[in-house]
Specification:
Layout: H1 9-23, E1 36-41, E2 44-59, E3 68-70, H2 77-88, E4 93-101, E5 112-122, H3 128-134, E6 137-140, E7 150-155, H4 160-170, E8 175-184, E9 186-188, H5 220-223, E10 239-244, E11 264-265, H6 283-292, E12 309-314, H7 324-332, E13 340-343, E14 345-347, H8 356-368, E15 376-380, E16 406-412, E17 430-435, E18 439-442, E19 455-459, H9 462-479, H10 485-495, E20 507-508, E21 514-515, H11 526-534, E22 543-549, E23 553-555, E24 560-567, E25 571-584, E26 590-595, E27 601-605, E28 618-624, E29 634-642, E30 650-663
Parallel strand pairs: 10-12, 10-13, 11-12, 13-15, 15-16, 16-17
Antiparallel strand pairs: 1-2, 2-3, 2-4, 4-5, 5-7, 5-8, 6-7, 9-14, 18-19, 20-21, 22-30, 23-30, 24-29, 25-28, 25-30, 26-27, 26-29
Helix pairs in contact: 6-9, 7-8, 9-11, 10-11
């Protein structure tokens, strides 16, 4: 993970001088800016407060320096708003108000920037233009395939977003909802500093450096012997989108495979996906090399699918991220021709997911992409970022990785064991795992990179594991281009190799699939996955069954509450989601598990240490794949237990269980 860039002292003094002069001549804002507001932030309503002692100043210079400037507390959010507008009038900087969730720690991870966009849902048939004119805003279409009554209002002045939102929400005759769009920091998953392994053990592990022979992607049989012989699979005619911090298109090991025509930079809004060299944005370039670095070109390494095309989709930088709008645009970009989209990134804190537009975009892309077969999204499960293990994170707390429309990938080391505490995360949502730790891959050319000679030898985390799985899927699609997005998931589950046999968490569900909260279905196996793909009959259309539980229930300290759902529909299960709304003073105390009618148990949440402290407005959707292939009909039980004795109580307000799958004959 990389930090925001803090400028030199000279630059800071210059900002202070400009700020002081500008404050003398500020003009009042058009609307009152509230001190706090409930905002649908990253998918769920949260009370957000304006920081009265902080403004985010982003230089318009090419380097895009982005410090958070602190100063004596202003009297109110409105005073701060006027001060921000006075800075904005200099035209030298992008100025943002800073928001934090009420009751949360205030730091780089939790900081939100107030954008100039509002996602507005109007009553059907309402013309948005008169409202926009009243607010001195422009109107654009939303991203992600939302209905026609959704619009994006873009205000013209720094900080006016909250005031404009307040006015829109008061106009209940025409406005159904109005949500300011926030910019959150995202982390690039990986970069542990571990001892070096020989190059590319993850493709052919023969036991080098005390590793375990066979703990690799088992890709060489798919490439054929000799390499590239007739019948070999190398990812031909498959495009892999690298949604990341950029893709260096001139790297000699990537250039032959880069699809320049279809790449895009969503930050600079141009067709060059190249990263910022000045900021050492090397992450996406390293990820791309693992998926599809060119083979047999006398340069460095080979990717898993070494003749697949790479499409760079730049959505982040060391000091810059996108709103929900930008994410949605990337998720839907060229979905007719980009079969796979790799995402080796995610939110930096727990219980954050995609916003309204991005959620809609994921669903639309997975269902409608590739002429109805579905875009295949592959997602890093995450890396527990506290190496001392103080925070027990979980991939199910990431709303991107636990979406039914993504393939969450965990990581294993060269011994075939989980690389805890900071190179992967467990979760009932994991599909498969892949090698991580000390991975050799492409790096930025020359001094801009992290490693010598244009390569890095210690890349890792689930950032590395994810593109290995994307490469395997490219080989599967070359063998059978007609695989749907759910077919790809089931093939990976069926073909995965069980590792770490002594781990007591392994279970065989009632359908005969094996799962583990740390490994998903197991280690990805390219040879078995491709063989299954060759004769695969696509799954029937997806169906679902949902039951709601709306009884307000107390959660007393130290006790366990069981919720029962009796499902009458007879589906062959694929994904199962459980959504709950509750309040609790110490959420980290709670453990939540789901048991299917067949007796398969999924641990959705385990007790953690201060991973989420707010006791109000908590709503979350958990997901499990551990019931894949089982029958839905029968009694499903959810257990919610307060595990620690601290005299804290809570209240379950409502819950729902949804079974996704296919109709049984």
């Amino acid at each position: 993970m990389k930090n925001f860039y803090y400028p030199s002292m000279v630059f800071v003094f210059y900002l202070i001088l400009v700020s002081a002069l500008a404050e003398l001549n500020h003009s009042p804002s058009l609307w009152t800016t509230p001190n706090q507001m409930i905002i649908d932030n990253a998918g769920y309503p949260r009370t957000m407060e304006v920081a009265k002692d902080e403004i985010y100043i982003q230089s318009k210079l090419p380097l895009r320096h982005a410090p958070a400037t602190h100063f004596p507390t202003k009297a109110s959010a409105e005073t701060l708003h006027q001060y921000a507008q006075s800075l904005d009038n200099t035209k030298k900087y992008n100025i943002y108000l800073v928001l934090y969730e009420k009751g949360k720690p205030r730091n780089e991870k939790t900081r939100c920037l107030l954008s100039d966009e509002i996602l507005v849902e109007l009553k059907p048939g309402t013309d948005p233009l008169p409202l926009a004119k009243q607010l001195n805003a422009t109107v654009e279409k939303p991203a992600g395939g939302l209905p026609d009554n959704f619009h994006r209002f873009i205000v013209s002045k720094t900080g006016n977003t909250l005031g404009a939102t307040q006015i829109l929400r008061q106009n209940s005759n025409l406005v159904l909802s109005a949500e300011p769009l926030l910019i959150r920091k995202k982390s690039k998953r990986g970069f542990p500093n571990d001892p070096l392994f020989p190059k590319q053990w993850y493709l052919n592990n023969t036991g080098q450096n005390n590793g375990t022979s066979g703990i690799d992607c088992h890709v060489s049989p798919v490439w054929s012997d000799p390499f590239g012989a007739p019948g070999s699979l190398l990812g031909r005619n498959i495009r892999i989108g690298i949604i990341d911090d950029g893709l260096q298109v001139s790297h000699p090991d990537l250039k032959p495979n880069v699809d320049i025509k279809n790449g895009y930079d969503f930050l600079d809004q141009d067709n060059s996906p190249n990263p910022s060299l000045a900021l050492n944005d090397s992450h996406g370039t390293s990820v791309a090399g693992l998926a599809a670095a060119k083979e047999n070109n006398n340069n460095g390494v080979s990717g898993v699918a070494p003749e697949a095309k790479l499409v760079g989709l730049r959505i982040m930088s060391t000091d810059e991220n996108l709103t929900d709008t930008g994410e949605a645009k990337a998720f839907t970009w060229k979905n007719d021709i980009i079969q796979i989209k790799n995402n080796s990134w995610g939110p930096v804190e727990a219980f954050i997911g995609p916003g309204t537009q991005a959620s809609s975009a994921l669903k639309k892309s997975a269902i409608q992409g590739r002429q109805g077969l579905g875009t295949i999204f592959v997602w890093a499960a995450g890396n527990n970022e506290n190496a001392d293990g103080d925070t027990l994170d979980n991939a199910n707390y990431d709303g991107y990785a636990n979406s039914i429309y993504t393939i969450a990938v965990g990581g294993v080391n060269a011994l075939g064991k989980v690389a805890l505490p900071y190179d992967t995360e467990p979760g009932a949502n994991l599909i498969v795992c892949a090698p991580t730790l000390n991975i050799t891959t492409t790096d930025l050319i020359g001094k801009a990179g992290d490693g010598p000679n244009d390569y890095i030898f210690d890349f890792g985390g689930t950032s590395a594991a994810t593109p290995l799985v994307s490469g395997v899927i490219a080989l599967m699609l070359e063998k059978n281009p007609n695989l749907g997005w759910r077919d790809a998931q089931e093939i990976l589950i069926r073909s995965a190799k069980k590792v770490d046999d002594r781990n007591k968490d392994w279970i065989n569900n009632a359908a005969g699939f094996h799962f583990n909260h740390s490994y998903g279905a197991g280690l990805v196996d390219a040879e078995k996955a491709v063989k299954l793909s060759a004769s695969w009959k696509n799954l029937s259309p997806q169906k679902s069954a949902t039951l709601d539980y709306q009884k307000i229930t107390q959660l007393p300290e130290g006790n366990e509450k069981e919720i029962v759902f009796n499902i009458k529909q007879n589906l062959r299960v694929e994904h199962v989601t459980f959504t709950l709304t509750l309040s609790h003073d110490t959420l980290w105390d709670l453990s939540i598990s789901l048991t299917s009618p067949s007796g398969t148990l999924s641990q959705l949440k385990q007790p953690t240490i201060n991973i989420y402290e707010s006791g109000t407005h908590f709503k979350w959707t958990f997901m499990t794949v551990h019931n894949w292939g089982e029958t839905s009909q029968g009694t499903w039980k959810v257990s919610i237990k307060d595990s620690l004795p601290n005299n804290k109580t809570g209240e379950l307000k409502k819950a729902s269980l949804t079974i996704y799958g296919t109709e049984t004959l």
